[in-house]
Specification:
Elements (H helix, E strand, L loop, with lengths): L3 E6 L3 H12 L5 E3 L13 E2 L9 E2 H14 L3 E3 L3 E5 L5 E5 L3 E10 L3 E3 L15 E2 L2 H4 L7 E5 L3 H10 L5 E5 L9 H8 L4 E4 L2 E9 L2 E9 L5 E5 L2 E4 L3 E3 L18 E2 L10 E3 L11 H19 L10 E2 L1
Parallel strand pairs: 1-2, 1-8, 2-5, 8-20, 10-17, 11-12, 11-17, 12-13
Antiparallel strand pairs: 3-4, 6-7, 7-8, 9-18, 14-15, 15-16, 19-21
Helix pairs in contact: 1-2, 1-6, 4-5
Bound molecules: NADP nicotinamide-adenine-dinucleotide phosphate (NAP).
NADP nicotinamide-adenine-dinucleotide phosphate (NAP) binds next to helix 4.
Length: 318
């Protein structure tokens, strides 16, 4: 017999919503917090686009509320993170912190994706204070301010275009002289009069004073000269990495590492293993879409445990 009916991995909006729904269905979900408890929203300041809050709520407070809500209905939390899984037999086995093995009849993977960071001096300490990885979340705070977007892919083009709605000027900084972004996205950005370009430049430091970002120091890859591009906001848009390496190939993922699901549910290719949130979604990546998919995953688990879930992975999408 398994230790738990359902184990949920991760405590971002997806995992916590799954925990609320599973707990209210009397499944007593066991939730492994993950290595970033609360998920990416704990890295942001005010959240203004999560429905239900007429006034802004701080990201960490929103996540704390979701957690308390899940606990109120009987969800049990354990700190630590899943380091490996064995989905080859039932019950499923999950190893936490490399030393404790838990078993479950069903699993919900909501381990999210982590925004990649540049890894340069000054960056981490200014996250939430001028450095952001989410234009949709934080763009509004830079109304009439100068913004830098780092990256040359579709996300950087999309975020730069979006940010021109707020910023006085957006500067895209890219490390090569050609962009990775698709032509249509490039053209949209190039035709935007509020976007200027600094190509062939490697970011080397985020500069700040009195807890305010002053700009990005870059090195010109041709001349080797360094200079400061002044701005109040810096959006790092160099891609995300889904947190799926611990699955070690036991669940089907796409070439980047996102879990492959079908159109209708968060079912993975392994019957009884479901997923939700950014770990399966490279496109929308919003707290509210993650929460919605967490609700779906928990409802599917409930059906699965009743023997009433139809596992149809044939419509899988990547
Ligand atoms: P991406 O395509 O991997 O692009 C990442 C960009 O960041 C690249 O230009 C890369 O430079 C740069 N970069 C990576 N590490 C860096 C570092 N350490 N320092 C400086 N620059 C660095 O990621 P993405 O733009 O997030 O897109 C991910 C996927 O989602 C893509 O398949 C994309 O097409 C898709 N997407 C689609 C849409 C849309 O269609 N609406 C919108 C967003 C994303 P290099 O080019 O030199 O490698």
């Amino acid at each position: 017999m398994a230790d738990h009916k359902v184990i949920i991995l991760g405590t971002g909006p997806a995992g916590l919503t799954a925990a609320i729904y599973a707990a209210r269905a009397n499944l007593k979900p066991f939730v492994v917090e993950g290595n970033e408890p609360g998920g990416q929203l704990t890295l942001t300041s005010e959240v203004e686009n999560f429905p239900g809050f007429a006034d802004p709520i701080l990201g960490p407070d929103l996540m704390e509320n979701m957690r308390k809500q899940a606990e109120r209905f009987g969800a049990i939390f354990q700190d630590g993170w899943a380091t490996s899984v064995d989905f080859s037999a039932r019950p499923f086995k999950i190893t936490v912190n490399e030393d404790e093995t838990l078993t479950a009849d069903a699993v919900i993977i909501s381990t999210g994706a982590s925004a990649k960071l540049l890894g340069i001096p000054g960056e981490t300490e200014m996250i939430g204070h001028g450095v952001s990885t989410c234009a949709t979340c934080d763009g509004f705070f830079f109304t009439n301010k100068r913004i830098i977007v780092v990256g040359g892919g579709d996300s950087a083009m999309e975020e730069a275009s979006f940010l021109t709605k707020f910023a006085s000027m957006v500067t895209i900084v890219h490390r090569r002289d050609t962009l990775r972004a698709s032509k249509v996205m490039q053209d949209r950005a190039r035709n935007n009069p509020k976007i200027q370009w600094v190509m062939n430049a490697t970011p080397i430091a985020v500069k700040s004073a009195n807890h305010q970002v002053q700009g990005l120091e870059v090195r010109d890859n041709v001349t080797g000269e360094t200079r400061l591009i002044e701005a109040e906001g810096i959006f790092v848009s160099i891609g995300h990495q889904p947190n799926t390496s611990f699955l070690n190939g036991q669940v089907a993922v796409d070439k980047v590492g996102y879990i492959i699901t079908n159109h209708k549910s968060g079912a993975t290719n392994v019957e009884g293993v479901f997923c939700c949130g950014d770990v399966m979604d490279s496109r929308y990546r919003q707290a509210v879409t993650a929460a919605g998919s967490g609700c779906r995953a928990a409802m599917d688990v409930e059906k699965y445990l009743e023997g009433a879930f139809v596992h149809d992975w044939s419509m899988s999408i990547t």
